[in-house]
Amino acid sequence: MAEAGKLVPVPTEQTAQFWRGCARRELRLQQCGDCGRYQFPPQDFCRYCCGARLTWKAVSGRGKVLSWTIVHWSPNPAYAADAPYSLALIQLDEGPRMLTNIIGCPPGPIEIGMQVKVDFEQCGPDILLPKFKVT
Ligand SMILES: [Zn+2]
User: Fold this and answer.
1) How far is ligand 1, taken at its centre, from the CA of residue 5, in Å?
2) How far is the CA of 126 from the centre of ligand 1 (A)?
3) pLDDT tens, 28-78?
4) How far apart are CA 45 and CA 53, in angstroms?
């Protein structure tokens, strides 16, 4: 459940499929029917070839840490009690990158290249946020 003051994503027409997948603990990405590449965040056209034949696919949820940092102090008081927490850029096995948190371990042992897998945290009544755990 969302804690007071924390930001809760509001699905739009463009992101609804992504959030429906998360609600089922399934990471979904758009895949282009023309060039076959995956993209995130969602948009109306393929960012690589401008193709408009995009479909939603459930993906592995696996990736690796490209970069990360530890947040020791949050400018938003709603997140103050969470500090220190990690903020990480994940390279998904399917290609796209996702800015997220690594959960399930203290922030110190994280290293670039570590293998991670998606997990989900309840953020609002109908919203689960994709976060990652070290595998
Ligand atoms: Zn394409």
Assistant:
1) 38
2) 31
3) 999 999 999 999 999 999 999 999 999 999 999 999 999 999 999 988 899
4) 8
Six-digit token string for 63? 């990736």
Q: 5-25: per-residue pLDDT in tens?
A: 888 999 999 999 999 999 999
Burial of residue 10, with CB atoms counted within 10 A of its CB: 0-12 exposed, 13-18 middle, 19 or more buried: exposed
DSSP 125: T
Amino acid 129 reads L
Distance 63 CA to ligand 1 centre (A): 21
CA 49 / ligand 1 centre spacing (Å): 4
Is-cis flag, bond preceding 77, omega within 30?
no
Mean of per-residue pLDDT scores for the chain: 94
